[in-house]
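Hello,

I think I submitted the 1-O-phosphono-alpha-D-glucopyranose job twice by accident. Can you confirm which output corresponds to this input? Input:
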Amino acid sequence: MIYKKITKAILPVAGLGTRFLPATKAIPKEMLTVVDKPLIQYIVHEAAEAGITDIILVTHSSKNAIENHFDKHYELETELQLRGKEERLIPIQEITPEGVRIVSVRQPEALGLGHAILCAEPVIASDEPFAVLLPDVLMHHSKKGCLAQMVDFYEKVHTSVIALEAVPEDQVEKYGIAEINGADMRISSLVEKPKKEDAPSNLSVVGRYIFTPRLMQLLKVTKPGAGGEIQLTDAMDRLLDEEVMFGFEFKDGKSYDCGDKQGFLQANIEYALRDPKLGADFKEYLKSLDVDSI
Ligand code: G1P
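Support: Only one job matched these inputs. Its output is below.
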């Protein structure tokens, strides 16, 4: 493959978020907040930090709030300006990172994650590599974002790179699981949501991917798999027959699976503790809690 820089990222946001009902009846799950920002904003900023200039939202008619969040709200901005509320205006103007364009395509039917990615095909050139970020997963970092670290790695290997993370064995049924061959983290096989006894390892696919253009072609011929859905993991497993694919372990950071209530609550507590304005007082409050009496 001829090497090309990664500038586009696909964010599948069409899912109905049933795990968070009733909260997500009228609000997209990607708009649930961690401290003071919706999940999707963290993801868009992680992509921008990695050099992404074009974000492609694969969305659904019920989820316009996501597009609205990244659009300019002229009346609100003018009002805040008139009232001299600069400190409230700046965070609004920083929602969409500088130099980033956000476009959307629709996924008309919930046919699976693989199908969602395929819906972005019209806006990705046939020879263009691309990133995928799943908005359920927050990646906190102290030095460099997860996708930015993956892009650095991709620029050395010029092939697909998939973020992996070890999970407890009783959790493998919730994730795509990778089998690794050798110390350089070459992936030898992938399986979506295997039973504990069938899992080739405990290395889970975390929700950050960099793909060569071939993946899109393979998605077109991928048949429904686990759960009757067109699975991204199945197309990736087929790609392994043709190309080398590397696993990537996120360093200097921590992931939060916010598609799950536990992970979402943990993210809120830990992001609040790290918040420069709220952190110190919030820590004192947590320390003062007699958790057994609540
Ligand atoms: C999706 C992917 C799975 C991956 C997971 C990460 O599953 O299909 O391979 O491990 O995201 O969160 P979902 O959570 O949509 O069921």
